[in-house]
Amino acid sequence: MAQMAATVRVKVLFFGRLRELIGLAEESPELPEGATLAQVFERYAERFPKLAGFRGSMVVSRNQEFAPWDARVAAGDEIAFLPPVSGG
Amino acid sequence: MSEEDKIALVREVIDGEALARLVRAGLDGATVAFDGYVRNQSHGRATDYLEYEAYEPMAIAKMKEIVAQIHEKFRIHRVAMVHRLGRLEIGETSVFIAVSAPHRGAAFDACRHAIDTLKKTVPIWKKEYFADGAVWAEGELPPIPPNAKSAS
Question: Is 60 exceeded by the pLDDT of residue B152?
């Protein structure tokens, strides 16, 4: 019997040039439970190929803290893809 | 961070003088203020105006972390740290930081540390508009924490 993969609902946000590039600021996808942030990014890079080239010039946050790419998502997480910051 | 500190993101004009007054108190002897404002050119190209956007809740959290850090590191009294968002014209203040302290050295050091750290870690983005187009400012990549596997 095929096993149903568990999924979790999270919120994903894009800012600055990344938001502009793909025309998406926010959505609430269902992702495989335990997916890494790198895998979440890969899903978006497949959907929006223009994103792929930005992987090296961005950081990711999980629940409003900068996070390593191998951190795993949990239900209700808020994940944001952030280009280099330029406040001040 | 103390209850006397002021940390905010605003969309209206920043009143720097009012913020500098706000941090003054009887026990202090010095206030150092940093007033960052919009330059009329970028890499030799005449700027028309700027637009700032932020990941607002995270930006506020990171600004609070910076203020907590400078309280820990330096002998200072009060801090005001305000960043403006939205459209800004040439010469308008985008960020204002005021730090009061009993003695000037700590106020200078803390204010410098605060603006340098803000520019590296607070999720705010600037888009520069020129007569013939617009670009996102290059910016700095915030340091990322070590891999989840190696941290425990």
Answer: no
Q: Other CB atoms closer than 10 Å to residue B112's CB: what's the count?
A: 16
Tens-digit pLDDT string for chain A (88 aa): 455 679 999 999 999 999 999 999 999 999 999 999 999 999 999 999 999 999 999 999 999 999 999 999 999 999 999 999 999 9
| Residue A3 token pair | 């096993």
The DSSP bridge partners found for residue A8 are A31
Distance from CA of B54 to the nearest CA of A (A): 8
pTM: 0.94
- Side chain identity at B4, as an amino acid letter? E
Residue A36: strand, helix, or coil: strand
Residue with tokens 């960043």: B83
Q: Domains (ranges, CATH) in chain B?
A: 6-132 (3.90.1170.40)
Tell me which amino acid residue A63 is.
N
B39 CB-near residues (< 8 Å, 6+ apart):
B47, B90
Comparing alpha-carbon positions, the chain A residue that sits nearest to B60 is A64
Asked whether the beta carbons of residue B139 and residue A83 sit closer than 8 angstroms, the reply is yes
* Chain A CA closest to residue B141: A84
Taking CB atoms and an 8 Å limit, are B144 and A86 in contact across chains?
no
Q: What is the number of CB-based contacts under 8 A between chain A and chain B?
A: 100
